[in-house]
Amino acid sequence: xxxxxxxxxxxxxxxxxxxxxxxxxxxxxxxxxxxxxxxxxxxxxxxxxxxxxxxxxxxxxxxxxxxxxxxxxxxxxxxxxxxxxxxxxxxxxxxxxxxxxxxxxxxxxxxxxxxxxxxxxxxxxxxxxxxxxxxxxxxxxxxxxxxxxxxxxxxxxxxxxxxxxxxxxxxxxxxxxxxxxxxxxxxxxxxxxxxxxxxxxxxxxxxxxxxxxxxxxxxxxxxxxxxxxxxxxxxxxxxxxxxxxxxxxxxxxxxxxxxxxxxxxxxxxxxxxxxxxxxxxxxxxxxxxxxxxxxxxxxxxxxxxxxxxxxxxxxxxxxxxxxxxxxxxxxxxxxxxxxxxxxxxxxxxxxxxxxxxxxxxxxxxx
Length: 366
Hints:
Blueprint: E1 4-9, E2 18-22, E3 28-31, E4 38-39, E5 50-55, E6 58-63, E7 70-72, E8 75-77, E9 82-85, E10 90-93, E11 96-103, H1 115-130, E12 137-142, E13 149-151, E14 157-161, E15 168-169, E16 180-185, E17 188-193, E18 200-202, E19 205-206, E20 213-214, E21 221-223, E22 226-231, H2 233-243, E23 271-275, H3 288-295, E24 319-323, H4 340-365
C-alpha cells in the first residue's frame, strides 16, 4: 500500500513541529534552492542536496552529489546509491536534521504549511535570535507620495487609499478611497483589491477584485500612479542564502559512523554526547559574524538552529560519543615524622632490649 510521507524539520525554536506532508509516490527533493520541496535555509546544505524517491511501496534516500554529503542514521549515503528509509529514520544534510515518518493516507493530518512557510519561519527565528530587524515595511517608490512608508508591525490587514481612516493615506487622485488591503501573516504578505475604480496591479498584472494574491517582496505593486515595494528582511535573507555558495563543514562537524556495540544503552555519567552539527563552542545561536552578515543582508553561514534532543531513549540525532576515563589514583607515599618524645621512647626501648639481651647472655654463660 502506498504511504504518505511526512518530513519533520527539527528546530527547537518552533512552537509546533515543522511538518511537510507529501502525497503517496511523490518524489521529494531536499535542498537550499527555492524549488526544493523541502527547502532548508542553511549554507552547508547544497542547492540540490538529496531526494526521497518512491520504491516498492516505500522510499529510498539518494544523495545528489552534495558538497557535505547525506547521512541516514549517521551512515553516509554514497552519491547515486539508493538506501531504503524506514519510519522514524533521521536524515542529516549539512547541519540540518530531518525525521521521516510514514503514515496511511487516511490517518495523515492535513498540514497547512508549505516549504516556503517553514524556510521563512526558520530564517525569521534566526534573525530574532541575532537581534536583527524582521518587521516588513511598505515603501512608496513612485507617484505623488514617493518616500512615504508603512511599517507592518502587526499580523493583520492594512488598508491603502485616500480615505482618512486608512492605514496608509495616499494623495494620488487615481487611487480609490479604500483601494487595496495588504495582509501580513508571519513573514508572508497578500494583496486584496477592494473593488477599486482603477484596479490594482502586481508586476503589471491586474488583480481580481476581492481575491487575495501572494505578494513576493521582489514584485512592484501599483495603485493608480502610486508604486510600492516591500522591504522584508526575512525574505531578503532567504534569497541571499539561496544564492550563497555551499559552505564546507569542518572535520569536527561530520557525523561519525558508530561501530557495533558502541551504543548498547544510554550514555553513562562519564560519557559526553556531542550532537552532530554542534562544535564545542556551540551552534545553538548565530555567530557574531553571522549576526552582522544577516543584519547587513549579506550571506549567512549559519541560519538554521537544530533540535538534537529527545525524550526517547534512542539517540535523537547522529552522535559522536567521547569516552572519558577517570585517572586511577596513584599510591601515596606516607612520610613518617618523629617528635622528640617519640625519639626518646624508641631510644629507651632499644637500650632496655640491649641490656636484657646482655643480662640473658651473662646468665646463660654462668
